[in-house]
Design goal:
about 190 residues, 3-stranded mixed sheet, 1 helix
Amino acid sequence: MATTPLPAGFDYGLITGQYMQIVGDSTDLDRNSEGMPHSGLNVAFALSSKKLLDRDDKVTFLQNNPIVCTTDVEGFLIDKQGARGVYLVATDLSVGTTNPTGATYSVTITQASRVLDMFDITVPAGSEQDLATIAPVPSSNGASIVIGPTGPGMVVVSHGTDANVVRPVGAAVAYWIGTATPINALAYDLWYDA
């Protein structure tokens, strides 16, 4: 199917990006995790407005399918021509030329039909934006871990042959070490007959 350039009223912005993945340590000298280019990703840009009207040329453009790019062997975003980055129709098109104005793109990153990330962006006319700087980053993706104050732990009491040693105050559990049975031990305390 033949394509044709969009009319003069349409402006563009360039979107670039590089994706890496964290992998386990290789055979290098350290034992740290490492980065590796994330090739073979599909990055789809879907315009929020499904229809753009160019009033000057009296043409309606329907956005039925997202613009899909991939990542190359170095993890860089590439367009259908294999060039780094992709030019998208600007979302701040001039009022009076096109309708609507102020649209956004929904960005969906997938690999093997699995969605890895989704977010929305704007593409100002004439801009060059890197997805690494405009994609939102969650503050946390995992479960919250609440760490409270340290509770009373086990206290070791070396009482030797004195069965009348006072049990330590506030001890959750006392571990008595001695030859005499401690008379101040509680039922859940431990005793080792040394």
